[in-house]
Amino acid sequence: MCEKVIVVSVRSFQEDILRFEESLNELENLVDTAGGIVVTKIVQTLKNPHPATYVGKGKFEELKEAVEKYDVFTIVFDDELKPSQARYIGEALGKDVKILDRSGLILDIFAQRARTVAAKTQVELAQMEYMLPRLSGMWGHLSRQYGGSIGTRGPGETQLEIDRRAIRQKITSLKDKLKKIDMQRKVQRNARKNKFRVAILGYTNAGKSTLINKITNADAYVENRLFATLDPKTRIFRYRDGQTILFTDTVGFIQKLPHHLIESFRSTLAEAIEADLLLIVTDASHETVEDHIEIVNKEIERLGAKDKPNILVFNKIDKIDEFKTLNLQSNYPEAILISAQNCEGINDLLEAILLRYESYKKIIINA
């Protein structure tokens, strides 16, 4: 049975309405990915979120009524809450309600989906750093007993009572562990140094795993949900001259991705930083596809890989009409349009990749 959730969001006067609605819809999809169901949304337009209650007085009363009406124990806010806000809201609601923000929800999903030692370590580090300033309030709900699991996965449920000093020691320990994992990965990357490496990046759920499966006949995990892939998956494409190209699928990006996660997953994303070519994959059928491109490009810049050679790939063109297809071709003449699901445009993409590969070989030979 799905856990009932109320989502709350504030739109600033300057924020584009389409981008705001996209963020809200994305938050609902995140709740679904975490195993919840949104029963109602509380939305308000303000100059700035209220410093104590996030929404204004009237909307906060509406939130209180909705909690009682729907018998809800989980509320998710679309922006990152200050620890004092989370504490005040929890006390003001007057019942055992879990108060989560977008960052906390994303961290919870990552904790749910982490499978390897590296991913679990990275997620735990991000959760610890997120938890540290919130010890006195936001995680207080973890000591209570009630139904539902959203927001209670990961270290929170077992680490509630440890003090800040112990958490800082744990953070140091996790960072040391990640350094060792990173060293192991560097050895693996060095072993592949003379191979042409292609990293597939993009917005979450843009079809990156489906694409790598089609190109390399691999079996990367595919699911129509956010953050289906956490760990980088490297697969081999065998070129006609017997040489190989390595394709690596990476974790997807999203709006307001917690900075703790980016920092923790830096060793995972090193696959992208050190690749010879980036494939930036986006969902052509999405209403705010341009925003997705902008978000991904910003994250690539944060990683220090903005100057890497890249190919922009519009996936899922089987879901768009001819007008939008022509519009994308006009606005992004260098991009390649494909449908990874039905293999449309895959050969065009491979030809573009192989052209880059030939240039790479000439550089290696002349070096």
For the largest beta-sheet, the strand count, sense and barrel status come to:
6 strands, mixed
What form results from the Cα inertia axes? globular
Total count of domains: 2
Sequence of secondary-structure elements: EHEHEHEHHHHEHEEHHEHEHEH
Q: Supply the CATH architecture of the largest domain.
A: 3-Layer(aba) Sandwich
Number of extended strands:
10
CATH class annotation of the largest domain: Alpha Beta
> Count of helices?
13
Note down, in words, how this protein is organized.
- With 367 residues, the chain is of the alpha/beta class.
- The protein has two domains: 3-159, GTPase HflX, N-terminal domain (Rossmann fold); 192-366, Rossmann fold, CATH 3.40.50.300.
- Helix content is 46%, strand content 17%.
- It has 13 helices and ten strands.
- Strands 6-7-5-8-9-10 form a six-stranded mixed beta sheet, sandwiched between helices. A four-stranded parallel beta sheet has the order 2-1-3-4, with helices on both faces.
- Strand 6 (233-238) and strand 7 (244-249) form a beta hairpin.
- Residues 137-146 have low confidence and may be disordered.
Core attributes:
367 residues; Rossmann fold; 2 domains; four-stranded parallel beta sheet; 10 strands
Secondary-structure blueprint:
Blueprint: E1 3-12, H1 17-34, E2 36-46, H2 57-70, E3 74-77, H3 83-93, E4 98-101, H4 102-113, H5 117-131, H6 156-159, H7 164-191, E5 196-202, H8 208-216, E6 233-238, E7 244-249, H9 259-264, H10 266-273, E8 277-283, H11 289-302, E9 310-315, H12 322-331, E10 336-337, H13 346-366
Parallel strand pairs: 1-2, 1-3, 3-4, 5-7, 5-8, 8-9, 9-10
Antiparallel strand pairs: 6-7
